[in-house]
Design a protein that fits this description.
CATH architecture: 2-Layer Sandwich
Helix content: 25-40%
Structural class: alpha+beta
Radius of gyration: 15 Å
Oligomer: single chain
Largest sheet: 6 strands, antiparallel
CATH superfamily: GAF domain
Bound molecules: methionine sulfoxide
Number of domains: 1
């Protein structure tokens, strides 16, 4: 697949539904984790009006910045710190409707108002955090969590190297 087909007039849920098979088509023929994370970040960034879409990869006792789209970001996050480190610690997704109300939020960009993070793993990485930021308050909800989790499941299936 070389071209992404996104109908920008669709609802958020319909957009996710139309993207999932396209993402599967894109990553199912590539085993490399970093290559697939890079394309997934690009696809989601291109499809929605989010500020930042990217991945942090576990290396030892910290998370290190991986492929992303958006403004430059913090390179290392310690276990349990920030939204990403907390999600890694509890191994659960976290939705933050207002980042100013999340005590330990790490502000990479002052433009970020809300955030969602989903932790997952692959054969090569014990923990990867899928992190999305928005300039709008409460921009992420259960619909995002449901479909972004499906994206992580696809990455878990196809990223074997
Ligand atoms: N806000 C995140 C840090 C990563 S940036 O949003 C890209 C956190 O608190 O973990």
């Amino acid at each position: 697949m070389e071209t992404l087909h996104i109908d920008q007039s669709l609802s958020k849920e319909e957009k996710y539904k139309s993207l999932l098979p396209q993402i599967e088509g894109l990553i199912s023929s590539e085993k490399d984790t970093i290559a697939n994370l890079a394309n997934v970040a690009a696809v989601i960034y291109e499809s929605f009006d989010f500020l930042w879409v990217g991945f942090y990869l576990q290396k030892g006792k910290e998370l290190v910045l991986g492929p992303f789209q958006g403004p430059l970001a913090c390179t290392r996050i310690q276990f349990g710190r920030g939204v990403c480190g907390k999600s890694w610690e509890i191994n659960q997704p976290i939705i933050v409707p207002n980042v100013d109300e999340f005590a330990d939020h790490i502000a990479c960009s002052s433009l970020s108002k809300s955030e969602i993070v989903i932790p997952f793993s692959t054969p090569t990485y014990e923990a990867i955090i899928f992190d999305l930021d928005s300039e709008k308050l409460a921009d992420f909800d259960e619909t995002d969590q449901k479909y972004l989790q499906k994206v992580c499941d696809l990455l878990n299936t196809y990223c074997v190297e």
